Amino acid sequence: MADKDAAFRQIFESNSKKIYRLCYGYTGDEDAAHDLLQETFVKVWQNLDKFRNTAMISTWIYRIAVNTCLTYLRSEKRQAKEELTPQLAETRREEFSEKNEQIALLYKCIAKLEESERIIITMVLDELPYPEIAEISGISEGNLRVKIHRIKQRLTDLYNQYERL
In terms of Cα–Cα distance, which of 134, 135, 136, 157 is closest to 146? Predict the structure, then answer.
Protein backbone atom coordinates (compact mmCIF):
# COMPACT_ATOMS: atom_id res chain seq x y z
CA MET A 1 0.00 0.00 0.00
CA ALA A 2 2.90 2.38 0.78
CA ASP A 3 4.28 1.68 -2.70
CA LYS A 4 0.95 2.65 -4.27
CA ASP A 5 0.87 5.85 -2.19
CA ALA A 6 4.39 6.82 -3.25
CA ALA A 7 3.70 5.96 -6.90
CA PHE A 8 0.49 7.98 -6.84
CA ARG A 9 2.22 11.00 -5.27
CA GLN A 10 4.87 10.91 -7.99
CA ILE A 11 2.22 10.55 -10.73
CA PHE A 12 0.21 13.43 -9.29
CA GLU A 13 3.23 15.74 -8.99
CA SER A 14 4.32 14.94 -12.56
CA ASN A 15 0.91 15.39 -14.18
CA SER A 16 -1.36 17.62 -12.10
CA LYS A 17 -0.39 20.96 -13.68
CA LYS A 18 -0.96 19.66 -17.21
CA ILE A 19 -4.27 18.08 -16.24
CA TYR A 20 -5.40 21.29 -14.53
CA ARG A 21 -4.64 23.27 -17.70
CA LEU A 22 -6.54 20.69 -19.73
CA CYS A 23 -9.56 20.95 -17.41
CA TYR A 24 -9.37 24.74 -17.44
CA GLY A 25 -9.22 24.69 -21.22
CA TYR A 26 -12.44 22.70 -21.29
CA THR A 27 -14.33 24.74 -18.73
CA GLY A 28 -12.81 28.23 -18.62
CA ASP A 29 -13.62 28.13 -14.91
CA GLU A 30 -11.00 27.75 -12.16
CA ASP A 31 -13.33 26.10 -9.63
CA ALA A 32 -14.66 23.58 -12.14
CA ALA A 33 -11.11 22.88 -13.33
CA HIS A 34 -9.99 22.14 -9.74
CA ASP A 35 -13.01 19.86 -9.23
CA LEU A 36 -12.30 18.00 -12.48
CA LEU A 37 -8.62 17.71 -11.56
CA GLN A 38 -9.60 16.08 -8.27
CA GLU A 39 -12.13 13.81 -9.93
CA THR A 40 -9.56 12.75 -12.53
CA PHE A 41 -6.98 11.81 -9.90
CA VAL A 42 -9.57 10.00 -7.78
CA LYS A 43 -10.19 7.83 -10.87
CA VAL A 44 -6.43 7.43 -11.40
CA TRP A 45 -6.04 6.29 -7.77
CA GLN A 46 -8.99 3.88 -8.05
CA ASN A 47 -7.70 2.36 -11.28
CA LEU A 48 -3.93 2.53 -10.77
CA ASP A 49 -3.75 -1.24 -10.31
CA LYS A 50 -5.45 -1.69 -13.70
CA PHE A 51 -2.89 0.40 -15.63
CA ARG A 52 -1.29 -2.02 -18.12
CA ASN A 53 1.81 -0.04 -19.20
CA THR A 54 0.78 -0.39 -22.87
CA ALA A 55 0.93 3.41 -23.19
CA MET A 56 2.68 6.13 -21.26
CA ILE A 57 1.02 6.81 -17.92
CA SER A 58 0.55 10.46 -18.90
CA THR A 59 -1.41 9.32 -21.97
CA TRP A 60 -3.59 7.13 -19.78
CA ILE A 61 -4.20 10.01 -17.34
CA TYR A 62 -5.03 12.39 -20.22
CA ARG A 63 -7.65 9.94 -21.47
CA ILE A 64 -9.20 9.76 -18.01
CA ALA A 65 -9.17 13.56 -17.76
CA VAL A 66 -10.69 14.02 -21.23
CA ASN A 67 -13.49 11.57 -20.45
CA THR A 68 -14.07 13.26 -17.08
CA CYS A 69 -14.26 16.70 -18.74
CA LEU A 70 -16.56 15.48 -21.50
CA THR A 71 -18.90 13.87 -18.98
CA TYR A 72 -18.92 17.11 -17.00
CA LEU A 73 -19.67 19.21 -20.09
CA ARG A 74 -22.51 16.89 -21.13
CA SER A 75 -24.08 17.21 -17.69
CA GLU A 76 -23.68 21.00 -17.55
CA LYS A 77 -26.38 23.25 -18.83
CA ARG A 78 -24.44 24.60 -21.77
CA GLN A 79 -26.38 27.79 -22.36
CA ALA A 80 -26.07 28.99 -18.77
CA LYS A 81 -22.37 28.13 -18.85
CA GLU A 82 -21.79 30.09 -22.06
CA GLU A 83 -23.46 33.17 -20.56
CA LEU A 84 -21.51 32.91 -17.32
CA THR A 85 -18.04 32.21 -18.72
CA PRO A 86 -17.54 35.52 -20.59
CA GLN A 87 -18.63 37.47 -17.52
CA LEU A 88 -16.17 35.59 -15.33
CA ALA A 89 -13.42 36.05 -17.90
CA GLU A 90 -14.12 39.80 -18.05
CA THR A 91 -14.04 40.11 -14.26
CA ARG A 92 -10.80 38.17 -14.01
CA ARG A 93 -9.21 40.00 -16.92
CA GLU A 94 -9.26 43.24 -14.92
CA GLU A 95 -7.22 41.54 -12.21
CA PHE A 96 -4.45 40.28 -14.50
CA SER A 97 -1.31 42.00 -15.68
CA GLU A 98 -1.01 42.59 -19.43
CA LYS A 99 0.66 39.22 -20.04
CA ASN A 100 -1.90 37.43 -17.94
CA GLU A 101 -4.64 39.31 -19.79
CA GLN A 102 -3.35 37.77 -23.00
CA ILE A 103 -3.31 34.32 -21.43
CA ALA A 104 -6.85 34.81 -20.08
CA LEU A 105 -7.96 35.93 -23.54
CA LEU A 106 -6.33 32.89 -25.10
CA TYR A 107 -8.24 30.59 -22.72
CA LYS A 108 -11.43 32.50 -23.45
CA CYS A 109 -10.84 31.85 -27.16
CA ILE A 110 -10.01 28.20 -26.47
CA ALA A 111 -13.33 27.87 -24.60
CA LYS A 112 -15.12 28.84 -27.84
CA LEU A 113 -13.59 25.91 -29.74
CA GLU A 114 -15.30 22.55 -30.19
CA GLU A 115 -14.56 19.99 -27.48
CA SER A 116 -12.19 17.90 -29.62
CA GLU A 117 -10.29 21.05 -30.66
CA ARG A 118 -9.93 22.17 -27.03
CA ILE A 119 -8.29 18.92 -25.99
CA ILE A 120 -5.88 18.96 -28.91
CA ILE A 121 -4.77 22.58 -28.49
CA THR A 122 -4.38 22.14 -24.73
CA MET A 123 -2.04 19.20 -25.30
CA VAL A 124 -0.10 21.26 -27.87
CA LEU A 125 0.26 24.04 -25.28
CA ASP A 126 1.47 21.42 -22.80
CA GLU A 127 4.12 20.49 -25.39
CA LEU A 128 3.07 16.85 -25.67
CA PRO A 129 4.71 15.10 -28.63
CA TYR A 130 2.47 14.84 -31.69
CA PRO A 131 2.49 10.99 -31.69
CA GLU A 132 1.15 11.03 -28.13
CA ILE A 133 -1.52 13.63 -28.99
CA ALA A 134 -2.52 11.53 -32.01
CA GLU A 135 -2.82 8.42 -29.81
CA ILE A 136 -4.91 10.23 -27.19
CA SER A 137 -7.21 11.87 -29.71
CA GLY A 138 -7.51 8.74 -31.87
CA ILE A 139 -6.50 10.30 -35.19
CA SER A 140 -3.49 9.81 -37.45
CA GLU A 141 -0.48 12.06 -36.98
CA GLY A 142 -0.96 13.51 -40.48
CA ASN A 143 -4.57 14.42 -39.77
CA LEU A 144 -3.48 15.80 -36.40
CA ARG A 145 -1.02 18.22 -38.01
CA VAL A 146 -3.74 19.52 -40.37
CA LYS A 147 -6.20 19.82 -37.48
CA ILE A 148 -3.67 21.70 -35.31
CA HIS A 149 -2.99 24.12 -38.16
CA ARG A 150 -6.73 24.80 -38.54
CA ILE A 151 -7.21 25.17 -34.78
CA LYS A 152 -4.36 27.70 -34.62
CA GLN A 153 -5.91 29.67 -37.50
CA ARG A 154 -9.29 29.67 -35.75
CA LEU A 155 -7.72 30.75 -32.46
CA THR A 156 -5.86 33.55 -34.21
CA ASP A 157 -9.11 34.76 -35.77
CA LEU A 158 -10.95 34.60 -32.43
CA TYR A 159 -8.09 36.33 -30.63
CA ASN A 160 -7.95 39.12 -33.21
CA GLN A 161 -11.72 39.66 -32.93
CA TYR A 162 -11.35 40.25 -29.17
CA GLU A 163 -8.30 42.48 -29.64
CA ARG A 164 -10.34 44.77 -31.93
CA LEU A 165 -13.05 45.25 -29.28
Answer: 134
